[in-house]
Design brief:
alpha/beta, about 15% strand, globular, 6 strands, six-stranded parallel β-sheet, single chain
């Protein structure tokens, strides 16, 4: 029987316990975060690359409130419980942890990962939590993004297609 992927969605305390246990066993924890509103090939490539830097990949997932703060009132498209479940269903991800704050600094400080990964659109000196990870002897790095692929471009394309199709339907 396959593992119930929802078991991979953890509270902060559960994630800290797992992370600490794995650390004691000498396993390297990788952390990244994001909204992951509409999962696309860019996300999958990014997550697969991030996983290569350690033994256990934890995703800090922005809550709905956090996404609205960052992206505006029209986002997220997909509610947090569904976004968390989709991420947990990906084999490459070991744990998903929701956070309410606008940025993951508090969660990174709480979990103390060995490796912190962000997309290549983030300059290293602006990566939130960098100082925490490096102070613990960890590594911070960026992974190149897949060109032309983002949730915003997908949303823009859907809106554009809807407008074109909607106008066509109105004239018929």
């Amino acid at each position: 029987m396959p593992e119930d992927h929802r078991k991979k969605i953890a509270s902060w305390g559960e994630a800290q316990d797992i992370s600490a246990r794995l650390g004691r066993d000498g396993r390297k924890i990788v952390f990244t975060n994001g909204c992951f509103d509409l999962i696309h090939v860019g996300h999958l490539r990014y997550l697969n690359e991030a996983r290569k830097y350690g033994d256990f990949l934890i995703i800090g997932l922005n809550s709905d409130r956090s996404v609205r703060t960052i992206k505006g009132p029209g986002r997220p498209i997909i509610p947090e419980d569904q976004r968390a479940e989709v991420l947990a269903g990906l084999e490459v991800i070991d744990l998903v942890v929701l956070f309410e704050q606008p940025d993951p600094h508090e969660l990174i400080t709480f979990l103390r990962p060995d490796v912190l990964v962000k997309g290549g659109d983030w300059p290293l000196d602006r990566i939130i939590g960098k100082e925490v990870v490096e102070a613990g002897g960890g590594r911070v790095l960026t992974i190149p993004l897949t060109p032309g692929v983002s949730t915003s471009t997908i949303i823009d394309r859907i809106v554009s297609l809807h407008n074109v199709l909607g106008k066509k339907d109105e004239t018929e």
